[in-house]
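Worked Example 4.2. Consider the chain below.
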Amino acid sequence: MGDTRIGIIYPGDGALDREFWDFAPPGVSLHFTRQPLCSAHVGLESMSGLVDDGTLEPCADSLKIIAPAAIGFACTSASFIRGLAGEAAIRRQITEVSGSPATTTSGGILAGCRALGLKQVAVAAPYVEEVSVRLGSFLEEGGIGVSQVRHMGLEEGIAEVSAEEVVRVGMETDTPDAEGLVISCTNLATLEAIPILEERLGKPVVSANQATVWHSCVLASVPWAEGFGVGRLWRANRPAAVVAAAE
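Applying the procedure from the previous section yields the following structure tokens:
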């Protein structure tokens, strides 16, 4: 039997394809398509444009030929910026065009928090403040309390942030009453930072790329061995995670 195919719709400036692969279980192949890049700056207007510019449907259609078992829309900010209803609309668009079940990065993060049983989290985001706070609002709308949202104030160059910096920001973002840590943005590398943060904090960490791949695998009914994966998320309650962000 061949690999389980998972489609990934990635913004045009996405630079971390390799990290998605590194999160994936054996027997899974990832197939990327990119939306045209309209702006390298991460702001409310540019992120809304990824949903409104008419490129989402052609990207979903381009994946239809390989009949992916699931498709992940791999942009956190564009999928949380309009709340649960906006996230659900993105999933519907992708599924209607492609015929495959779909998730988004924000939906995957929310599903991951639910699967881990987290009631309250701290949120670290690389964006400017006006974008970052929207993720906190999205999670709260989905029933996850947010103890703090820490923004890094970056409009570009997010892919160049080091693992050491991610660890530092994560440690500064955590609060005593947070049960876990959420790290946003599919252009922020977290593969190396997650194990360090989970050990130091004693709490689960849910990151953008990790959650995108994980939830796509859950929707695709991909099996993986006990103990597999970077982060506690891969050992969470999988059936509960199938519940999407908003239905």
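The mean pLDDT is 91. The radius of gyration is 16 Å. Compare this with Example 4.1 before moving on.
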